[in-house]
Amino acid sequence: MSKIEEGNAHIRQAEKSLKTSLLKWRPDFEVAADEYTSAATCFRIAKSYQQCKDCLMKAADCYKENRSWFHAAKSIEQAVLICKEMGNLTEVPKLAHSACSLYQMHGSPESGATVLDKAGKMLEATQSQDALELFKRAANIVMGEDSPRQAAEYMSKVARLLVKLQMYDEAADAIRREIGMHQQTDHIPSIGRLTVALVLVQLARGDQVAAEKAFKEWGNYCEAPEINTLEMLLQAYDNEDAEAARAALNNPFIKHMDVEYAKLARGLPLPQQEYAIPPPGVRANAAESYTSPNATKLMEETTSQVQNLKILLKHETLPADTVEKEEAQDAPLKNIENEEEDYEGGLC
């Protein structure tokens, strides 16, 4: 008998145990669940993955009817792995969340977080947004169980995915949460590395002030090479020095960070971009601008015309007494000017 036939035989037994009669008032869900599980094993060996998945889901439903939450979650977890074998990842997030909830109902939240982590790794490359939600829930579950070290690992995956998706605001928040988790376990080296990552993310956001605040707040956890690199980088951004910023970002320490942070550093906008073509400016040894010889004469004529016009307007608008007083005041000034002109003429 082939494995396919053996699996079909187990399915018939399961369906038979689910039927009721005059003497059998309630379906035997326990026997049906075991038969469906055996059928799924046969189909997996025969590489009939779709039938295997269907049997696992039916087994999970039977376990739920018996309120056997752990075995139901286990069946759905195996269905997640079968989806991976089939190359069909669309149902993976839903199944992973369902299995996690059942593990929590049984009282095994760590197992639920492990399922979410496995599913997240499957989706990380192709469905980053779904993987992000899975890792976030895993971190929250483990943190609720007072396991900050494990929670920090999940939150690290969240932060790296957010950087990959260029969601820098949320990435900065995730890194701060991860730093807080490492503080609970007094893991100083991790906090130092995360400080560098946080500064890079803040610079990617275009917020230089926030980057400096992050360095001031967490810089005391950094080692000497990290401090020197960050000081050089922030000083370069402060001085708008593109060359110094490039030199700091090419530091071997930054290049050997996690892949997402290293890529972020390579693509970080420099404080002052260099121009591919130099902007137009003053040419060297250029001739002086041309000035017309009549320009001075025209300016003097225009000035005298304006002054005459002002005098006429005064005579028209002011009363006669006021005009006579102003002329009397201006007379001495005119006499002085005439004397100066005569004096200059005498010298000539």
Automatic annotation (TrEMBL):
Pfam name, any one: SNAP
Source superkingdom: Eukaryota
Protein family per UniProt: Belongs to the SNAP family.
GO molecular function: soluble NSF attachment protein activity; syntaxin binding
Protein name (record): Gamma-soluble NSF attachment protein
Membrane topology of this protein: Peripheral membrane protein
GO terms classed as biological process: intracellular protein transport; vesicle-mediated transport
Protein's UniProt keywords contain Transport: yes
Keyword annotations: ER-Golgi transport, Membrane, Protein transport, Transport
Organism: Melipona quadrifasciata
Keyword Chloroplast: no
GO cellular component, one term: vacuolar membrane
Cell compartment(s), UniProt: Membrane
Record InterPro entries: NSF_attach, TPR-like_helical_dom_sf
Chain residue ranges for the region called Disordered: 320-348
Biased composition (Acidic residues): 338-348
